[in-house]
Design a protein that fits this description.
This is Endoglucanase. By secondary structure, the protein is an alpha/beta fold. It is built from 8 helices and 8 strands, in the order αββαβααβαββααβαβ. Helix 4 crosses helix 5.
C-alpha cells in the first residue's frame, strides 16, 4: 500500500517517540494499516510478525527477575522492536501485596527508591529503545490497583520522584504517563517535563456494550473521548493497552479500524495489543474476558 505523506510522518512520529528507526513489512498477525503496531505477547503469537515495532513487557518492582529484561532486549533487538516496560509498584504475589496507604507512605519515605533504581539500572544497559510506563491507569476507581484513585497531589509527587530516580540511572529511557483515559485524568498529569508520551487503554467487550448501551460500540467510539482527553497535553499518544472480544463480526470491525481509524487523531502514534486473558473481573458479571487472538472470537 502506498503511504501518504501524513502516514509517513505519523510512523516517523512513533520512531521519534520511542526511538525506533527502520522499515517493517510482512504482517502475519497484525491488522491492516500504517499506524505503528505492537503487542504484549507472552504467548508468542506475534513472534515472527515483521509488522510489529513494539514489544510490551509487564513486571512488578518487587520479586522481579531482572535478567528477564536482558532476555527481552535480545528478543526485541532480533526483531527490530522497541520496548515498552510497564512497571507495576507492587508484588505479583497477591497474598503479600501492600495497601495503597503503605505504598504511598513507603514512596514518600524513600522505601522503594532501591526498587526503582534496580530496574532502571538494568534498563540503562539495554540496547533496544526503551519507554518506561510506571503506575498506569491511576485515575481508575475500580479498585484493581493500589496506586489508583489517590489524591492527585500524592500521585504526582510519587510519579515525579520515581521518574527522577530512573532518569538518573537511565537518562535515555523515555517516560510514558498512562492513564486509562477516563474523565478527570488531567488532575494526575505530572507536568510536561516528566512526560514524553501519553498512553491510554482501549478495550471492547461486545457483551458489555450491549448491556450498557444496547448495541455494539465501534473502536473509534471508545477511542475518541479517551484520545481527546490524552491529546490535550500536546504529547504523542499511544494506545498502550488494547483488546476486544465478541462475535467474529465485532472483532473484525475493531481489527480493521485499529491502524486506520476514521476521524482525526494527529497525536496518535501507535497501538499496542494486549494479547492475554484479563486478570481483573469486569463489572456486570462478565468475568475475565479473553483478549488473546485465539480466543477473542466468542461465537
Amino acid at each position: 500500500m502506498k503511504r501518504t505523506g501524513r502516514q509517513i510522518l505519523r510512523s516517523a512520529a512513533l520512531g521519534a517517540a520511542i526511538g525506533l528507526c527502520g522499515a517493517v513489512s510482512g504482517a502475519l498477525a497484525a491488522p491492516p494499516g500504517d499506524l505503528p503496531y505492537g503487542a504484549y505477547d507472552p504467548g508468542g503469537d506475534y513472534r515472527d510478525d515483521g509488522d510489529l515495532v513494539i514489544e510490551h513487557l509487564f513486571l512488578p518492582w518487587e520479586d522481579v527477575y531482572l535478567p528477564s529484561l536482558v532476555d527481552a532486549d535480545g528478543y526485541a533487538r532480533a526483531r527490530n522492536r522497541a520496548l515498552i516496560v510497564t512497571l507495576e509498584p507492587w508484588t505479583w504475589t497477591r497474598s503479600e501485596r501492600n495497601t495503597a496507604e503503605a505504598l504511598r507512605e513507603g514512596i514518600r519515605r524513600g522505601a522503594y527508591d532501591a526498587n526503582m533504581k534496580a530496574v532502571c539500572d538494568v534498563l540503562a544497559t539495554l540496547r533496544s529503545p526503551v519507554t518506561l510506563r510506571w503506575a498506569h491507569e491511576m485515575e481508575n476507581s475500580d479498585g484493581q490497583f493500589i496506586w489508583s484513585g489517590w489524591d492527585p497531589e500524592d500521585y504526582i509527587s510519587a510519579f515525579r520522584h520515581m521518574t527522577d530516580i530512573c532518569r538518573a540511572s537511565a537518562p535515555n529511557v523515555r517516560v510514558m504517563w498512562s492513564p486509562a483515559g477516563e474523565e478527570g485524568l488531567e488532575a494526575y498529569y505530572p507536568g510536561d517535563d516528566y512526560v514524553d508520551l501519553v498512553g491510554i487503554s482501549v478495550f471492547g467487550l461486545q457483551a458489555n456494550d450491549r448491556f450498557e448501551v444496547g448495541r455494539d460500540r465501534s473502536y473509534t467510539e471508545v477511542l475518541g473521548p479517551r484520545y481527546q482527553r490524552a491529546a490535550q497535553f500536546g504529547k504523542p499518544v499511544v494506545v498502550a493497552e488494547l483488546g476486544m472480544s465478541g462475535s467474529a463480526d465485532y472483532v473484525a470491525s475493531w481489527d480493521q479500524a485499529l491502524r486506520q481509524p476514521e476521524g482525526s487523531y494527529p497525536n496518535l502514534v501507535g497501538v499496542v495489543y494486549y494479547d492475554q486473558k484479563e486478570v481483573y473481573a469486569w463489572p456486570h458479571g462478565f468475568g475475565l474476558p479473553d483478549w488473546r487472538l485465539e480466543f477473542r472470537v466468542t461465537d
